[in-house]
């Protein structure tokens, strides 16, 4: 192998690397968007609830009620098939919003929908009326020392 072919191989590799590097775009850190959730989240149906509030009816509300029931926000006595936004659902959403350090309005705003649609573990946040979450702190976070 000649010095010339080694040099042109190195130049070709360097140029290819530069082109790949320049074509890569860093993730956007600008405005929050729910459009990314529509294809990645099993809870993307919640996007249809944006702006939903007390008194509204929506065919996706039973799915939300099942989600909130699973994670301990709604009691067993609630009709999970009901498609109406009632006082009990509003209260459950306020508690959910407080636990995740969101504005506790009881309304389904963009930030709440994004949190609902975010990946998470299946462990309930509230068990027997007790929560270990305090305004957005993760479960067990205070039990360990990190270094």
From TrEMBL:
<dbReference type="GO" id="GO:0006508">
    <property type="term" value="P:proteolysis"/>
</dbReference>
<dbReference type="InterPro" id="IPR002477">
    <property type="entry name" value="Peptidoglycan-bd-like"/>
</dbReference>
<dbReference type="GO" id="GO:0030574">
    <property type="term" value="P:collagen catabolic process"/>
</dbReference>
<dbReference type="GO" id="GO:0031012">
    <property type="term" value="C:extracellular matrix"/>
</dbReference>
<keyword id="KW-0645">Protease</keyword>
<feature type="domain" description="Peptidoglycan binding-like">
    <location>
        <begin position="63"/>
        <end position="116"/>
    </location>
</feature>
<dbReference type="GO" id="GO:0030198">
    <property type="term" value="P:extracellular matrix organization"/>
</dbReference>
<dbReference type="GO" id="GO:0004222">
    <property type="term" value="F:metalloendopeptidase activity"/>
</dbReference>
<dbReference type="InterPro" id="IPR021158">
    <property type="entry name" value="Pept_M10A_Zn_BS"/>
</dbReference>
<keyword id="KW-0479">Metal-binding</keyword>
<keyword id="KW-0865">Zymogen</keyword>
<keyword id="KW-0732">Signal</keyword>
<dbReference type="InterPro" id="IPR036365">
    <property type="entry name" value="PGBD-like_sf"/>
</dbReference>
<keyword id="KW-0482">Metalloprotease</keyword>
<feature type="signal peptide">
    <location>
        <begin position="1"/>
        <end position="31"/>
    </location>
</feature>
<dbReference type="Pfam" id="PF01471">
    <property type="entry name" value="PG_binding_1"/>
</dbReference>
<keyword id="KW-0862">Zinc</keyword>
<dbReference type="GO" id="GO:0008270">
    <property type="term" value="F:zinc ion binding"/>
</dbReference>
<dbReference type="InterPro" id="IPR036366">
    <property type="entry name" value="PGBDSf"/>
</dbReference>
<protein>
    <submittedName>
        <fullName>Metalloendoproteinase 3-MMP-like</fullName>
    </submittedName>
</protein>
<keyword id="KW-0378">Hydrolase</keyword>
